[in-house]
Specification:
The protein is mostly helical and about 180 residues long. Helix content is about 60%, strand content about 0%. It has a domain of about 100 residues: Monooxygenase (Up-down Bundle). The longest helix has 24 residues. About 5% of the residues have low confidence.
Length: about 180
Protein backbone atom coordinates (compact mmCIF):
# COMPACT_ATOMS: atom_id res chain seq x y z
CA UNK A 1 0.00 0.00 0.00
CA UNK A 2 2.85 2.36 0.77
CA UNK A 3 4.44 1.74 -2.61
CA UNK A 4 1.15 2.57 -4.35
CA UNK A 5 0.80 5.70 -2.25
CA UNK A 6 4.29 6.94 -3.13
CA UNK A 7 3.85 5.97 -6.78
CA UNK A 8 0.70 8.06 -7.22
CA UNK A 9 1.87 10.82 -4.90
CA UNK A 10 5.00 11.48 -6.94
CA UNK A 11 3.84 10.32 -10.37
CA UNK A 12 3.11 13.76 -11.78
CA UNK A 13 5.76 15.76 -9.96
CA UNK A 14 7.67 18.13 -12.23
CA UNK A 15 11.03 17.58 -10.51
CA UNK A 16 13.40 15.05 -12.05
CA UNK A 17 15.12 14.53 -8.69
CA UNK A 18 12.04 13.40 -6.78
CA UNK A 19 12.50 9.67 -7.46
CA UNK A 20 16.17 9.46 -6.40
CA UNK A 21 15.41 11.59 -3.34
CA UNK A 22 12.52 9.30 -2.36
CA UNK A 23 14.67 6.21 -2.87
CA UNK A 24 17.42 7.66 -0.68
CA UNK A 25 14.85 8.64 1.96
CA UNK A 26 13.39 5.11 2.07
CA UNK A 27 16.89 3.56 2.12
CA UNK A 28 17.95 5.84 4.99
CA UNK A 29 14.77 5.04 6.90
CA UNK A 30 15.27 1.29 6.38
CA UNK A 31 18.91 1.43 7.49
CA UNK A 32 18.01 3.53 10.54
CA UNK A 33 15.45 0.92 11.59
CA UNK A 34 17.63 -2.09 10.77
CA UNK A 35 20.96 -0.96 12.26
CA UNK A 36 19.99 -1.33 15.95
CA UNK A 37 18.70 -4.84 15.25
CA UNK A 38 22.02 -5.91 13.72
CA UNK A 39 24.19 -4.88 16.64
CA UNK A 40 25.02 -7.48 19.27
CA UNK A 41 23.43 -6.48 22.57
CA UNK A 42 25.24 -7.14 25.82
CA UNK A 43 23.16 -9.00 28.39
CA UNK A 44 21.87 -6.75 31.11
CA UNK A 45 20.50 -7.64 34.48
CA UNK A 46 17.88 -5.96 36.58
CA UNK A 47 18.91 -2.77 38.36
CA UNK A 48 20.21 -3.24 41.86
CA UNK A 49 17.92 -2.82 44.84
CA UNK A 50 19.43 0.58 45.64
CA UNK A 51 18.45 2.07 42.28
CA UNK A 52 14.74 2.75 41.78
CA UNK A 53 13.82 3.74 38.25
CA UNK A 54 11.57 2.69 35.42
CA UNK A 55 11.98 -1.00 34.73
CA UNK A 56 9.79 -1.55 31.67
CA UNK A 57 12.14 -3.93 29.86
CA UNK A 58 14.29 -4.92 32.81
CA UNK A 59 14.63 -8.46 34.05
CA UNK A 60 12.95 -9.25 37.34
CA UNK A 61 14.22 -12.14 39.44
CA UNK A 62 12.48 -15.32 38.34
CA UNK A 63 11.39 -13.92 34.95
CA UNK A 64 13.04 -14.77 31.71
CA UNK A 65 14.66 -11.80 29.93
CA UNK A 66 13.88 -10.65 26.43
CA UNK A 67 15.98 -12.54 23.93
CA UNK A 68 17.41 -10.78 20.89
CA UNK A 69 14.76 -12.42 18.73
CA UNK A 70 11.99 -11.22 21.09
CA UNK A 71 13.36 -7.66 21.06
CA UNK A 72 13.28 -7.63 17.26
CA UNK A 73 9.73 -9.01 17.36
CA UNK A 74 8.76 -6.39 19.95
CA UNK A 75 10.12 -3.57 17.78
CA UNK A 76 8.41 -4.90 14.65
CA UNK A 77 5.18 -5.41 16.61
CA UNK A 78 5.38 -1.86 17.96
CA UNK A 79 5.84 -0.42 14.47
CA UNK A 80 2.95 -2.56 13.23
CA UNK A 81 0.78 -1.37 16.11
CA UNK A 82 1.49 2.30 15.38
CA UNK A 83 0.75 1.85 11.66
CA UNK A 84 -2.43 -0.08 12.49
CA UNK A 85 -3.58 2.73 14.78
CA UNK A 86 -2.73 5.42 12.22
CA UNK A 87 -4.68 3.56 9.53
CA UNK A 88 -8.03 4.65 10.98
CA UNK A 89 -7.27 8.36 11.39
CA UNK A 90 -7.70 9.35 7.70
CA UNK A 91 -11.14 7.71 7.59
CA UNK A 92 -12.23 9.42 10.80
CA UNK A 93 -11.02 12.78 9.45
CA UNK A 94 -12.70 12.26 6.05
CA UNK A 95 -15.99 11.32 7.69
CA UNK A 96 -15.79 14.40 9.91
CA UNK A 97 -15.00 16.78 7.04
CA UNK A 98 -17.73 15.36 4.79
CA UNK A 99 -20.19 14.94 7.68
CA UNK A 100 -21.07 11.63 6.06
CA UNK A 101 -20.13 7.96 6.14
CA UNK A 102 -21.52 7.29 2.69
CA UNK A 103 -19.61 4.63 0.78
CA UNK A 104 -18.25 2.89 3.88
CA UNK A 105 -19.37 -0.60 4.81
CA UNK A 106 -20.46 -0.72 8.43
CA UNK A 107 -20.38 -4.52 8.27
CA UNK A 108 -16.62 -4.33 7.69
CA UNK A 109 -16.08 -2.19 10.78
CA UNK A 110 -18.42 -4.35 12.87
CA UNK A 111 -16.51 -7.52 11.92
CA UNK A 112 -13.13 -5.85 12.49
CA UNK A 113 -14.33 -4.66 15.91
CA UNK A 114 -15.44 -8.18 16.78
CA UNK A 115 -12.14 -9.63 15.58
CA UNK A 116 -10.05 -7.09 17.54
CA UNK A 117 -12.12 -7.67 20.67
CA UNK A 118 -11.74 -11.43 20.48
CA UNK A 119 -8.02 -11.20 19.70
CA UNK A 120 -7.34 -8.82 22.61
CA UNK A 121 -9.35 -10.96 25.03
CA UNK A 122 -7.64 -14.16 23.82
CA UNK A 123 -4.20 -12.67 24.50
CA UNK A 124 -5.31 -11.56 27.97
CA UNK A 125 -6.87 -14.92 28.84
CA UNK A 126 -3.92 -17.06 27.73
CA UNK A 127 -1.81 -18.40 30.58
CA UNK A 128 1.83 -17.31 30.72
CA UNK A 129 4.57 -19.83 29.99
CA UNK A 130 6.08 -21.81 32.85
CA UNK A 131 8.33 -19.51 34.86
CA UNK A 132 6.86 -16.34 33.38
CA UNK A 133 4.82 -13.90 35.46
CA UNK A 134 1.58 -12.40 34.20
CA UNK A 135 3.19 -8.95 34.06
CA UNK A 136 6.04 -10.24 31.95
CA UNK A 137 3.58 -12.01 29.65
CA UNK A 138 1.54 -8.84 29.13
CA UNK A 139 4.75 -6.87 28.54
CA UNK A 140 5.87 -9.35 25.88
CA UNK A 141 2.49 -9.00 24.11
CA UNK A 142 1.97 -5.26 24.68
CA UNK A 143 2.32 -4.07 21.04
CA UNK A 144 -0.37 -6.48 19.86
CA UNK A 145 -2.69 -5.59 22.72
CA UNK A 146 -2.26 -1.86 22.07
CA UNK A 147 -2.81 -2.42 18.35
CA UNK A 148 -5.95 -4.52 18.62
CA UNK A 149 -7.60 -2.73 21.54
CA UNK A 150 -6.49 0.73 20.32
CA UNK A 151 -7.99 0.15 16.87
CA UNK A 152 -11.10 -1.10 18.63
CA UNK A 153 -11.40 2.34 20.22
CA UNK A 154 -10.91 4.09 16.85
CA UNK A 155 -13.44 1.78 15.19
CA UNK A 156 -15.87 2.70 17.96
CA UNK A 157 -15.39 6.36 16.96
CA UNK A 158 -16.21 5.42 13.34
CA UNK A 159 -19.30 3.54 14.60
CA UNK A 160 -20.39 6.67 16.45
CA UNK A 161 -19.89 8.61 13.22
CA UNK A 162 -22.18 6.10 11.49
CA UNK A 163 -24.85 6.85 14.11
CA UNK A 164 -24.39 10.63 13.97
CA UNK A 165 -24.24 10.94 10.18
CA UNK A 166 -26.75 8.22 9.25
CA UNK A 167 -29.46 10.74 8.32
CA UNK A 168 -27.06 13.08 6.52
CA UNK A 169 -27.48 12.78 2.79
CA UNK A 170 -25.40 15.90 2.40
CA UNK A 171 -24.14 15.76 -1.18
CA UNK A 172 -23.21 19.44 -1.12
CA UNK A 173 -20.33 18.66 1.23
CA UNK A 174 -18.74 16.39 -1.34
CA UNK A 175 -16.32 18.19 -3.61
CA UNK A 176 -16.72 18.14 -7.37
CA UNK A 177 -13.77 15.74 -7.68
CA UNK A 178 -15.66 13.20 -5.56
CA UNK A 179 -18.68 13.39 -7.87
CA UNK A 180 -16.70 13.13 -11.13
CA UNK A 181 -16.50 9.65 -12.67
CA UNK A 182 -13.12 7.93 -12.39
CA UNK A 183 -13.04 6.97 -16.06
CA UNK A 184 -14.03 9.32 -18.87
CA UNK A 185 -17.06 8.16 -20.84
Amino acid sequence: MLSLYFHYKFKNRPSLLSTPINVMLLFTLAMTCATPMMSIPHPRTAPSDGFWSRRLLSVEPGNKPFTRKEIIGFVIGSISSVLYLLSRLPQIRTNFLRQSTQGISYSLFALVMLGNTLYGVSVLLKNPEVGQSEGSYVLHHLPWLVGSLGVLLLDTIISIQFLIYRNNNNTTAATSSERRPLLPS
